[in-house]
Design a protein that fits this description.
alpha+beta; 17% strand; 3-stranded antiparallel sheet; DNA binding; 3 strands; globular
Length: 66
């Protein structure tokens, strides 16, 4: 049963969110999200041609206080 909880937690953390959602979570502009991606602080994941960001990456930035 513990394994199922671990898998569920991992899938929630790796949820993909839009640039607008990422900006809202970090209280920054969408342009700042673009800059962070260009600097390598965030990795863009493309779904078709639409960029998305990993929720776990946003959590990491929130925890580190960047």
């Amino acid at each position: 049963m513990k394994t199922l909880n671990t898998i569920k937690t991992a899938s929630v953390q790796d949820k993909l969110i839009t640039k607008k959602m990422a900006a809202q979570r970090l209280s920054v502009s969408t342009r700042t999200i673009d800059r962070m991606a260009a600097e390598g602080l965030l990795e863009k994941v493309f779904v078709g041609s639409a960029p998305r960001f990993r929720n776990s990456d946003i959590d990491r930035i929130v925890e580190s206080g960047l």
